[in-house]
Amino acid sequence: MDFKQIQELIKMVNKHNIADLKIEEENFKIQLKTVAGVQSKGTVIASAPLVQQAPIAAAPAPVSAPIASTPAANTADSDKTETGPTTTGSEVIVKSPIIGTFYRSPGPDKEPFVKVGDSFNEGDVLCIIEAMKLFNEIDAEFSGKIVKILVEDASPIEYDQPLFVVEPA
User: Fold this and answer.
1) Is residue 41 located within the same domain as residue 82?
2) What is the domain-level CATH number for residue 164?
3) pLDDT tens digits, residue range 136-154?
4) pLDDT: is 154 or 28 the higher one?
5) Which residues form the domain of 79?
6) Residue 104 contacts by C-beta under 8 Å, 6 or more apart in sequence?
C-alpha cells in the first residue's frame, strides 16, 4: 500500500464517519480509528506498518495526519513525484516531507525560524510541521538563503507541497 492509497483511506474514513477500519496485507497492516467525541474534526489514528516497504520520504515521524477540511494542495508541482528539494534554475524548492500543519516559529510569541532574505546552514531548522500532535522540525539539507516562503503560518499542508524557494550557498 503506498502513501496516496493511505491518504485516500483516511479521507474516506472521515467522509463516511467510519469508526474503525483494519487492513492487513502480506507485509503491511494499518488500522484507522476515529477518536471518540471528536467527530466534528474527524481525527484519525493510523498504526505503523509491520514491515516498512520502501521509505516514502526521510521524515522524523510517522507519515499520518489529522483530517480536517483542507484546501487542495498546490497543483503546480502535482506531476512531480520526487520529494525534498527541487531545482528551478539557480533556486531550489524545499518541499514538505509529511502532511500536517505548517508553523514558521516554535511558538505563537516566538520569532520565526527563517524569514525572506535570511541565510541558513545545513541542519538549521526551517520550520515545524505538526502531525498527529507531534511537532516535527524540518531541517535544511544544505546551506542557502530564503528567497520566498510559499506557505502561510499555521496552515494545513500536504505531502510534497512546496514550502520555501531558496538559493543554495
Assistant:
1) no
2) 2.40.50.100
3) 999 999 999 999 999 999 9
4) 154
5) 75-168
6) 112, 113, 114, 127, 149, 153
